[in-house]
Amino acid sequence: MVADTISAAKRAAAEDDADAWDGLNEFVLLVAEKLAPKFAQDEIRTEFAKLREMTRSAGFDLRPEFSSEGVEALVRVRLLPLEEPKIPLSEEITALEADFARLGLDVATTCYQQAVDSFVDGRFLAANGQLRSMFEAVVIHFAVVNGFNSTQQGDGGRAIGYLKDKGFPPPDDGGNFIHGLWKITHTSGPHPGTTDAGEVHFRMLAITGAARYLIDRFAPPTP
Fold first, then answer.
1. Strand partners, 61
2. Whole-number Å distance between alpha carbons of 218 and 192
3. Which terminal residue of the chain has fewer beta carbons within 10 Å of its beta carbon, N or C?
4. Helix, strand, coil tally for the chain in percent (to 5)
5. Contacts (Cβ under 8 Å, ≥6 apart) of 179
6. pLDDT tens readout for residues 191-220
7. Which pLDDT tens digit goes with each residue over 37-92?
8. What digits encode the pLDDT tens for the residues 149-172?
9. Which among 134, 157, 128 has a CA at the least distance from the CA of 212?
10. In degrees rounded to 5, what are phi and psi of residue 220?
11. CB 148 within 8 A of CB 136
């Protein structure tokens, strides 16, 4: 009966039935909330990991939040979108912003939010600059984690060079993409007429994806 109900809800949600969509989200969260407080049991951790991977494949991430008393004290489980906020913007943060907060990347958070706001407002040049600043903050953070000594503001160029020399990540395993994207962020900057909505949207997707990749590779959230 449960399986039949879920199948019917999935079909309805695929046809843009808002109630079915909300019901499916609530069902996933209820299951996650039952599993999350039992992380001490290996089989439960595995089942939660499976559920989380399924939601990630659909573009969302499950994030349990615990109080300082430990995993038994579950506060809530959130279902956060992995991609940039939908337009018009809602008040819901994305999984990327949640990770920025977890890692203390306040500059990246601010620049990311400003980039989205600028894109929505049609200020494409500003969006490009803010996306570049966000990416630079992320790159510097992971360069420092891997032994880089950041001495001044705007160390993004030295940081990306350091990562490249150290092979973080390996060239054929994301490194070439990260380094190539860094070069792309320095084109079509503050000069009128050098960018358009399509290019900014590409940068939004690519830089969001690159930041997501680096976090999942070097500092993944706990399940």
1. 80
2. 37
3. N
4. 65, 5, 30
5. 160, 163, 164
6. 444 677 778 878 888 998 899 999 999 998
7. 776 566 667 788 888 888 887 778 888 887 877 656 778 888 887 765 554 444 45
8. 988 778 888 999 999 899 988 989
9. 134
10. -65, 145
11. no
